[in-house]
Amino acid sequence: MLDTYDLVVLGSGTAAQVASSRARAADWTVAVVDHRPFGGTCALRGCDPKKMLVSGEEAVDAVRRMRGHGVEGDVRIAWPDLMAFKRSFTGPVPGKQEQRYREQGIDAFHGLARFTGPDTVTVDGRELKARHVLIATGARPVTLSITGEEHVATSDDFLELEALPARVVFIGGGYIAAEFSHLAARAGAKATVLQRGARMLPGFDPDLVGWLMERFDDLGIDVRTSTTVQRVEATDRGYLVHAVAGGREQTVAANLIVHSAGRVPDLEALDLVAGGIVLEGGRLKLNEFLQSVSNPRVYAAGDAAGSGPPLTPVSSHDAKVAAANLIKGNHAKPDYRGVPSVAFTVPPITTVGLGEAEARERGLKFRVKSEKVPQWFTARRLAERIYGFKTLVEEDTGHILGAHLVGPHADEVINLFGLAIRHGLTAADLKETMFAYPTGASDIGYMI
Ligand SMILES: Cc1cc2nc3c(=O)[nH]c(=O)nc-3n(C[C@H](O)[C@H](O)[C@H](O)COP(=O)(O)OP(=O)(O)OC[C@H]3O[C@@H](n4cnc5c(N)ncnc54)[C@H](O)[C@@H]3O)c2cc1C
Ligand SMILES: NC(=O)c1ccc[n+]([C@@H]2O[C@H](COP(=O)([O-])OP(=O)(O)OC[C@H]3O[C@@H](n4cnc5c(N)ncnc54)[C@H](O)[C@@H]3O)[C@@H](O)[C@H]2O)c1
């Protein structure tokens, strides 16, 4: 282990992995630091473990949909076994990560990192001097500032539950509430979502969210919008969640309350003042090259940078941009065109590019095609009632401005619209493409 490095990377998630290996490949001396097991949010506490659990849901949902259509019998989620299945993936991740760092010649430090000066960082009592630092510390749940906040579990806690409690309340109605309430309800819990916003999943097309809400109803998920949680009270039988909606107080009983009210860059422990790193509105103040405006040695990437949407592919993209600028001098800028996003409800809902309202606000000239199409073959063969789309195509150029899908295979098909947006393909290009039939993609020609 050295005391001086060309690059010290704070964090060991997606952004850290990508940037550290690029810098090392350029023959830089590199250290990574994390106070939690190595691997970051996506692999250990986010996308991947969540989707391992969704696999159980998908299996149950398929049987329930096909019942009466040639499939008989009942199936249910065996929660401890599904958790064990999840751990079969997450368990080996930290060890594999450490081995990867060893093989690459990257030094890995365990501990909470904190700046002690513009080019020094302390980790577990050891001071590291750095020619450059990359802040890749990810995000944390936003502080709710409500009485009883200490009783609110995080998504990390939910993903480690050995047993699923009978009544689960979600505070907030975005990605985590949508995905985890579907999971909890299919696994037999009573799920309630208390969403301050006027609707669920505000990042997705309102019409498509409306169609998806039918499935929340089927699952018995109690979704209360325009409802703000005010306090949480512990009782001898669990908790009471006190909320207010339209001036009226409501109380919901719970055995588990899950934070799903948003995440913010995780910067608190870093002592940014000591590092000479300024913030603006609670976020790192960065230039267009993802470099701190006040300390040019320091760059940031991923959720910690807060520059693009807080998603794994964006963390990876940011890290490539920051690494390129570190190694060759500032020249690369992030490009967030065509970043697809999926909420992994069953069925999934997806979005890429501009929403209809945003495109109108920008004064663009475009045609909208939107329809709920459960009668299409893709949905029929799966006995799925929820299937629909909305596409936005620019009038003059034929460019795809935005695409929004809900239903089977939407999580895969949206990537093709992302490809079109990012690489300037037109609606005509997509229509001329031959997609294997019958697949989700073979519907694209009819969606535009
Ligand atoms: C429940 C959940 C589900 C998600 N599902 C998806 C999904 O399906 N698809 C998708 O694209 N995105 C998903 N996301 C978002 C995605 O996980 C993040 O955008 C992505 O993992 C961020 O990567 P990162 O490298 O920026 O940070 P992270 O992977 O969060 O890594 C940051 C690391 O820094 C460490 N750290 C923090 N502070 C310090 C410090 N002071 N010293 C040392 N180490 C520190 C942390 O321990 C952490 O390991 C999900 C997120 C959550 C919470
Ligand atoms: N599939 C995915 O890509 C995926 C899945 C899970 C999480 N994530 C990432 O994690 C981040 C955090 O997810 P999330 O679901 O916590 O946040 P979110 O930003 O998706 O949704 C938060 C919602 O909580 C509501 N809210 C905030 N404070 C509230 C309060 N006091 N009472 C009631 N409602 C309140 C807001 O109106 C908002 O709609 C996401 O932004 C996303 O980047 C991504």
Note the overall shape.
Answer: globular
Structural domain count: 3
Please report the first level of CATH classification, the CATH class of the largest domain: Alpha Beta
Largest sheet: 7 strands, mixed
**Fraction in beta strands:** 25-35%
- DSSP, total strands: 23
Annotated CATH homologous superfamily of the largest domain: FAD/NAD(P)-binding domain
Keywords: FAD, Flavoprotein
Organism: Falsiroseomonas frigidaquae
Protein name: NAD(P)/FAD-dependent oxidoreductase
Pfam family, one: Pyr_redox_2
3D architecture notes:
The protein has 14 helices and 23 strands. By secondary structure, it is an alpha/beta fold. It folds into three domains: 3-141 and 264-328, FAD/NAD(P)-binding domain (3-Layer(bba) Sandwich); 149-261, FAD/NAD(P)-binding domain; 341-447, Enolase-like, domain 1 (2-Layer Sandwich). Strands 1, 2, 3, 4, 5, 6 and 18 form a seven-stranded mixed β-sheet that branches. A five-stranded antiparallel β-sheet has the order 19-20-23-22-21, with helices on both faces. It has a four-stranded parallel β-sheet with strand order 10-9-8-14. A hairpin with a 2-residue loop joins strand 11 (227-235) and strand 12 (238-245). Helix 3 crosses helix 7 (175-186). The structure holds flavin-adenine dinucleotide and nicotinamide-adenine-dinucleotide. Flavin-adenine dinucleotide (FAD) binds at residues 10-16, 33-36, 40-42, 46-47, 50, 112-113, 136-138, 155, 176, 266, 269-270, 302-304, 310-313, 315, 344. Residues 339-442 form the Pyridine nucleotide-disulphide oxidoreductase dimerisation domain. InterPro entries: FAD/NAD-bd_sf, FAD/NAD-binding_dom, FAD/NAD-linked_Rdtase_dimer_sf, Pyr_nuc-diS_OxRdtase, Pyr_nucl-diS_OxRdtase_dimer.
